[in-house]
Amino acid sequence: MRDIRRATRKHLSAEDRIRIVLEGLRREERIAALCRREGIADSPYYTWSKEFLEASKRRVAWDMARAATRPSLRLVSALNVPKHSTTDS
């Protein structure tokens, strides 16, 4: 029984998963039809889609935070001001 189950599972690379999710986001065909064509169930598609969108949100937030802090870091390095001053004036 385990041999049969393992033989029917389809293991896809990360690139294939991303390709499938992007095709689904285009909405050129129904998700059920896309999954049938790719030989996968609907539930993995929706899991991959959710993970893909969450990772995209995290990346955008990280890029925005980095862009927001970058000018201040350049200013500090341009002024050559130490971050933590140990001298008392």
From TrEMBL:
<dbReference type="InterPro" id="IPR010921">
    <property type="entry name" value="Trp_repressor/repl_initiator"/>
</dbReference>
<dbReference type="Pfam" id="PF01527">
    <property type="entry name" value="HTH_Tnp_1"/>
</dbReference>
<dbReference type="GO" id="GO:0006313">
    <property type="term" value="P:DNA transposition"/>
</dbReference>
<protein>
    <submittedName>
        <fullName>Transposase</fullName>
    </submittedName>
</protein>
<dbReference type="InterPro" id="IPR002514">
    <property type="entry name" value="Transposase_8"/>
</dbReference>
<dbReference type="GO" id="GO:0043565">
    <property type="term" value="F:sequence-specific DNA binding"/>
</dbReference>
<dbReference type="GO" id="GO:0004803">
    <property type="term" value="F:transposase activity"/>
</dbReference>
